[in-house]
């Protein structure tokens, strides 16, 4: 029995060491990914190891082995030695594969797993009284588990899920899609989304409830208003002077009973030319989005527009909602532009994918069809694509995501803005290098169904044309003979 327990611990340690490098690659992206071979080639002219073997991966495996060993009740030195031996086998495997003219990252079943596990098992078997049978079982178990987990990892993170996949492809994006949008098992949803499931929906909500603040905060959250702004845009065609847009973002409609009814009341007697949705339709970042879409349909039934409804994706949204939204008559913009026509003139709405969590915003792609002499409004979920939008010539940037902090303190302002950018862009009107911007506090709530110190909103945006300033010297003078 003792040998079997040691075997299970050894197998767990090996799998943990094997797990660390790809996990670091997902989290850190390109940071500290310097190739171990520094790009050098062997005497056969082929790479020594290849770009997939990095300083980050080596250090992560060794240190991960030490940490894993301690967690499993094994000596620190043994964990470190196991990580080092496993990486030595992995590097030797890469060296052999390059000599066989196999490209970096190309699978060779058996060879990919054997040396990595074999050298580590030798270290473990020397230090622990497992015996040859258990040691062999550990090696076999590792090879099988490492092979199938690698196949799953590459299928989920390094292969496009379907033809015509519309997003900028990155493994970290695919991981978020997998854990937030693809899982159907409720226990697995919470397991892979511990931060959202336990911290926000569990702990923070419970704190407000135990403090007796939930009823008051809920009333605040339902006190949504209609804010009116009238940005002046240089170059706006006269045909669009006075053009009225309803901008609604961060609806989170399934997170607060009564919100949909409040929004229907606000827009009941209003007339708009266009409706723009800034993303985040559902309350959670994972789970069923059906209830949010049902409530959205009820709200949009009251919205009266001439040019329809356009939307972008937020960090709470999944690609799976694009089809149902289009069935409802909502055109979803995924790094693309949509023209609104008045006679010979056009106004462009350039919509980018989520800049915050999925990190798929591509303002350049969204603006590529917009002629340089025509006016474009950039629609984004968060302010985090504003710098590039300004550089590309957008006249107005509409976004949300921050909720204005949702909880704001006197003299201090928002407790958290949850964005990468200056606090001056967290709520309200702002400008950036000649581009006007507005960050809405959003209609709904996130994390906890309360608001304090901020008010939810939907926004009426009336576009105004900036009349050219006529200098005195530019005034036409009569020609004197």
What do you see in this structure?
Helix content is 40%, strand content 14%. The radius of gyration is 28 Å and the shape is elongated. It starts with a helix and ends in a 15-residue tail after the last strand. Helix 1 runs antiparallel to helix 2, helix 1 packs across helix 3 and helix 7 (186-192) packs across helix 8 (194-210). It contains 14 helices and 16 strands. It folds into two domains: 2-159, no CATH class; 205-466, Purple Acid Phosphatase, chain A, domain 2. The strands form four sheets. The protein has a six-stranded mixed beta sheet with strand order 1-15-3-4-5-6. A six-stranded mixed beta sheet has the order 7-8-9-10-14-13. A two-stranded parallel ribbon has the order 2-16. Residues 472-481 have low confidence and may be disordered. The longest helix is centred in the first third of the chain and has 27 residues, at 2-28. It is of the alpha/beta class and 481 residues long. This is Putative phosphohydrolase. The chain crosses the membrane at residues 134-153.
Return the average pLDDT rounded to an integer: 91
Shape: elongated
Radius of gyration: 28 Å
Q: Indicate the proportion of strand residues.
A: 5-15%
Query: Could you give the distance between the termini?
Result: 115 Å
Can you list the strand order of the major beta sheet?
1-15-3-4-5-6
The CATH class name of the largest domain reads: Alpha Beta
* CATH domain fold name of the largest domain: Purple Acid Phosphatase, chain A, domain 2
Q: Share of helix among residues? A: 40-55%
Content-based structural category: alpha/beta
Count of helix runs: 14
Number of domains: 2
CATH architecture of the largest domain: 4-Layer Sandwich
Encode the helix/strand succession as letters.
HHHHHHHHHEEEHEHEHEEEHEHEEEEEEE
Counting DSSP E segments of at least 2 residues, the number of strands comes to: 16
> Main beta sheet: strand number and arrangement?
6 strands, mixed
């Amino acid at each position: 029995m003792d040998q079997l327990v040691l075997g299970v611990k050894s197998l767990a340690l090996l799998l943990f060491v094997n797990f660390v490098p790809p996990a670091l690659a997902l989290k850190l992206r390109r940071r500290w990914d310097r190739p171990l071979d520094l790009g050098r080639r062997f005497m056969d002219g082929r790479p020594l190891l290849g770009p997939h073997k990095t300083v980050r991966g080596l250090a992560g495996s060794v240190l991960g082995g030490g940490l894993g060993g301690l967690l499993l009740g094994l000596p620190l030195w043994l964990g470190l030695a196991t990580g080092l031996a496993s990486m030595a086998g992995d590097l030797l495997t890469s060296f052999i594969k390059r000599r066989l003219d196999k490209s970096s990252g190309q699978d060779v079943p058996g060879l990919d797993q054997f040396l990595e596990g074999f050298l580590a098992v030798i270290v473990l078997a020397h230090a622990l009284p497992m015996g040859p049978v258990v040691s062999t079982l550990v090696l076999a178990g590792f090879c099988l588990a490492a092979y199938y987990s690698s196949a799953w990892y590459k299928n989920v993170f390094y292969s496009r899920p379907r033809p015509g996949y519309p997003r900028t492809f990155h493994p970290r994006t695919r991981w978020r899609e997998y854990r937030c949008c693809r899982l159907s098992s409720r226990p697995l949803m919470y397991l892979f989304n511990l931060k959202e499931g336990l911290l926000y929906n569990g702990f923070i909500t419970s704190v407000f409830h135990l403090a007796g603040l939930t009823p008051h905060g809920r009333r605040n959250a339902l006190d949504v208003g209609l804010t009116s702004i009238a940005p002046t845009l240089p170059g706006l065609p006269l045909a669009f002077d006075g053009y009225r847009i309803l901008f609604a973002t961060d609806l989170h409609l399934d997170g607060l009973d009564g919100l949909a009814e409040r929004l229907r009341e606000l827009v009941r007697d209003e007339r708009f030319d266009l409706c723009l949705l800034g993303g985040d339709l559902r309350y959670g970042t994972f789970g069923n989005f059906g209830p949010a879409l049902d409530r959205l349909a009820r709200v949009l039934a009251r919205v009266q527009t001439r040019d329809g409804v356009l939307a972008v994706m937020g960090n709470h949204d999944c690609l799976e909602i694009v089809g149902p939204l289009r069935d409802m008559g909502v055109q979803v913009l995924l790094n693309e532009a949509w023209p609104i026509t008045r006679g010979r003139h056009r106004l462009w709405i350039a919509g980018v994918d989520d800049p915050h969590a999925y990190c798929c915003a591509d303002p350049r792609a969204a603006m590529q069809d917009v002629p340089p002499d025509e006016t474009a409004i950039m629609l984004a979920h968060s302010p985090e694509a504003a710098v590039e939008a300004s550089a590309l010539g957008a006249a107005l940037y509409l976004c949300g995501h921050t909720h204005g902090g949702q909880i704001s303190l006197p003299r201090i302002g928002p407790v958290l803005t949850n964005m990468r950018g200056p606090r001056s862009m967290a709520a309200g009107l702002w400008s950036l290098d000649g581009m006007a911007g507005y960050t809405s506090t959003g209609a709904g709530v996130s994390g906890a169904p309360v608001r304090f110190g901020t008010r939810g909103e939907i926004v009426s945006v009336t576009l105004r044309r900036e009349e050219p300033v006529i200098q005195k010297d530019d005034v036409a003078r009569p020609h004197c003979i």
